[in-house]
Amino acid sequence: MAIAGAPGDNDRALREALGKLAANPRDESAWWDLYAIIRPSVYAIVYRCLCGRADLADDACQVVFIKLFKYCDFGKFQAPSDLRRYVSVIARNVARSQLEVLKDLKEGGIKSLAPVKEPLDPSGYTPQSHAVAREQLARLRRQLREPDRRLLQMILEGRSREKMAQTLGTTAEALSVRVHRLRNRIRNLLTDKE
Question: How much is the pTM?
């Protein structure tokens, strides 16, 4: 399902915006034109894919435009219909990613790595168990790549998702994916060593 456009003026304006962005990807007026022309269709796609969740659809719509801004080579599009198809694919993929993150959150994905807020039951604590836990954490840190060590440290410090995303210069969606992958990596490393 490609993004539909009104014939005539809409196609002409989109073709003009494409030409400007191909010449200068940072042309602010061309971005505003592009946004005004295709945002309603992008929103409609993500809204349907996200089962009518307007709050998620707004976020997904913004992620689509961020991806366009960061990664799109406008010179490769010969016609407005090519861009519409391309943006439709991005919109559906972003919506699917958000659904996956929601599913992960419902299953306790990100929260299971969050620091414990309530005090732990001290009856299971021994100096030996503390030493074993410290050694496991040190071994994990040595085995993880630098970006994963940095993310793990932020999680252990108890930073909020928003602060972590801001520090890492990423979106909440991308952070959720990174945390999910880190959890899997840690699980694999721990089960390989035991």
Answer: 0.53
Q: At what angle do helices 127-143 and 146-157 cross, to 10 degrees?
A: 140
3.40.50.2000, 3.10.100.10, 2.70.98.40, 1.10.1740.10: which CATH number matches 9-106?
Answer: 1.10.1740.10
**Cβ–Cβ < 8 Å for 80, 103:** no
- 10-residue block means of pLDDT along the chain (194 residues)? 52 92 92 93 92 87 90 88 92 88 66 47 61 82 89 85 87 88 86 61
Structural class in CATH, domain 127-193: mainly alpha
**Are 42 and 64 spatial neighbours (Cβ–Cβ below 8 Å)?**
yes
Encode 5-44: b = buried (16+ Cβ within 10 Å), e = exposed: beeeeebebbeebbebbeeebebeebbebbeebbbebbbb
